Amino acid sequence: MPTVLIVDDEPSIRRSIRNVLEDDLIFEDLTLAVEEAVDGEEALEKIKTGAFDLVLLDIKMPKLDGMEVLQGLHELESTTPVVMISGHGTIETAMEARSLGAIDFLEKPFELNRLIVTVRNALDRGQLVVENKRIKQVIADADAAELTPIVGESPAIGRIKATLERVAPTEARVLITGEAGTGKELVARWVHHLSARKEGPIVEVNCAAIPSELIESELFGHEKGSFTGATKQRIGKFEQADGGTLFLDEIGDMSLDAQAKVLRALQENRITRVGGDRSISVDVRVIAATNKDLISQIDANRFREDLYHRLSVILIHVPPLRERRGDIPAIAEYILAQVSRRNGMEPKGFTEDALEKMKHLDWRGNVRELRNVAERLLILSEGDTITGEDVYRYVRPGGAGADPIAALMDQHDQFSDFRDAAEKVFIERKLEEFGWNVSKTAEAIGIQRSHLYNKLSKYGIEREEEA
Question: What pTM value is reported for the model?
Answer without folding.
Answer: 0.56
